[in-house]
Amino acid sequence: MIRSILLILLIAGFWKSSSAQKIDHLSSYSDIQSSNYFRFNYDNDLFAGTDQNYTQGFSFELVAPFLDANPVNHLFYRPNDFEIRYGIFVEHIAYTPANFELPEIQIGDRPFAAAIYLKSFMIATDRENARRLTSSVSVGMIGPAAFGDAMQTTIHKITGSKMPLGWRNQVKNDLVLTYEMGFEQQVIRLKDLFSLQAQANVAIGTLFTGAAVGMNMTFGILNSPFKPATNNQGFKLYAYAASIVNVIGYDATLQGGLLNDNNPYTIAAKDVERVTGQFNYGIVLQIKKVYLEYSRTALTKEFATGNSAKWGGIKLGFGF
Q: Which domain of life is it from (predicted)?
């Protein structure tokens, strides 16, 4: 236990720089107890009554035994005596300033930005010691190639919302290449009713570079990723909450990509908030092989002249 907690502190402190994933699918409270599953994730700030900052994200996730043959898996640290699953994940994220309907650059607000990438990931679970290691590699693009303009415009036409006219000022095309690791250690468990976990995450790459450390808890009729899957079938209904501190090294959605500096507008490095606070909470329902989740997130301001952000999300998955 002590060694695991020290590992969490080491991961969080080694990179003095936030989590690369915007849609959180690797935390233990979102685990699907299956070696074969598919899940769709959708985030939108409209769930929280806003329309700015992180405005939308969606992803498709697949875990299956045939993905063991993915050559990218050789980049992951695979500890002994851990149960290991491999998956792939396609994610699209988009960001806008508050006055997205204006065609002019919004000085003092965040730039328009969108990214799309393919992620290969590993989930390694040590059930005996109640700990979990995750690793991932993401490759893709940030910029117009991620079709953020078309995506948001289509949704706003369907919903009758104001048209976003500032996408011509978005962060330009650049490479997304990110390596990420996460670790969780269960600290307390009270039967199948309550659990408390310490967590840490580190990412280094061209989209996000940073670290995060925090705690999460679950309570209800629990699904535990640290117990054998045979004990986690049937009906599960539980809530979760996570408090996280992010340390930011680089954020291309604010600062532009690392390789292409030909951007109409970005946030200067000196104006990026290097430490942010984040609170995630939600409710999960699992009925046999069907997974449903509703989540909400609140995040403190990410740059000097910005403001706090909040959004909600839904997840729908099924094992097979």
A: Bacteria
What per-residue string of b and e applies to 238-256 under the rule 16 or more CB within 10 Å gives b? bebebebebbbbbbbbbbb
pTM: 0.89
305 contact partners, CB below 8 Å, separation of at least 6: 108, 109, 271
Residues 6+ apart with CB under 8 A from 57: 22, 23, 41, 42, 43, 44, 91, 92, 93, 94, 313
Query: Model confidence over 268-300: pLDDT tens digits?
Result: 999 999 999 999 999 999 998 999 999 999 999
- Both tokens of residue 7? 């590992």
pLDDT confidence of residue 231: 45
In tens, the pLDDT along 197-255 reads 999 999 999 999 999 999 999 999 986 788 765 544 678 999 999 999 999 999 999 99
Closest CA to 56 of 114, 13, 102: 114
* Domains of the chain and any CATH numbers: 2-319 (2.40.128.140)
- Cα–Cα distance measured from residue 143 to residue 100, given in angstroms and rounded to the nearest whole number: 16
Mean pLDDT value of segment 90-116: 96
